[in-house]
Target: Carbohydrate ABC transporter permease
Amino acid sequence: MSGGGSNEEGFLEGLTPRRVGLYAVLLAMVGFYLAPLESGLMTSIKSTQAFASTTPFAPPGPEGFTIEPWLAAWESLQGSLFNLRGSLVNSLFFALPATLLSATLGSLAAYGLTKVSWRGQIFVFALLIAGVFIPYQAVLVPLRQFWSFVDVASLLTGVPVLEPRSDLIELTITHTAYGIPICTVLFRSYYQTIDDDMLEAARLDGASVARIYRRIILPLSVPMFAVTLIYQFTQVWNDLLFALVIVQSSEFFVVTQELNALQGALVQEYNIQMAGAFIAALPTLIVYVMFGKQFAEGVAGEGA
Model:
């Protein structure tokens, strides 16, 4: 009791006007950033009548509370729980491989550009830097023409599982290619902090370039893999522009396309749209929770 009392007294003595002002500013910032989420959540659990008669951030009363918007949004986005052609499954089908491939290839490219000496690597790195700054809008027309020329569906003839999903495979390859430059830049800045003496000692012991990557670089890359995986998965999952251009069949629409289709033609059902937005954002939240610790270490530059 005496220890708790002394801690409380110490805390109160430390509450200077400057610190109180700091706490007030921090609380105001928390409220500012969480207000849209709170309003969206409250809207998603209101009936249409309750939404029309209350402010968006006010919680619903007992008569206005409903989970029907969440059920309707899930039905529109995914259908039944085991529907393998729902938009959530379609998004997972292309987002997971695109994220893993771009992060892995970015790590390998960064290793080759940072810890392996060869002629022309500065030019290659300059091309990758340029790739980071190319906007999506600049490549939409040539991208559509390229995939029309390649015709992935005809290449996959005879593969029943993949042939109907040729649009999603094109989307996977596109996001992988587009994600490699930024992943390479992130990994390169991380690998530059790794001690060269350790790698030189491995070379003197006869380790090959591939063995050094597999036994030294890769284990040290876990925090940066967390950063790139979270960043890439969020970018790929939330993309709508490439999906609109590449995915033609409504049967294989991804979640952002179905979310865009939730807006009614005559009546705006904001509660269903908000519920759909939360459902669509759930996978990115799960990824962040799974790799949150490693993400913080990678951003802080720890682990190398």
Notes: The chain has a mean pLDDT of 87.
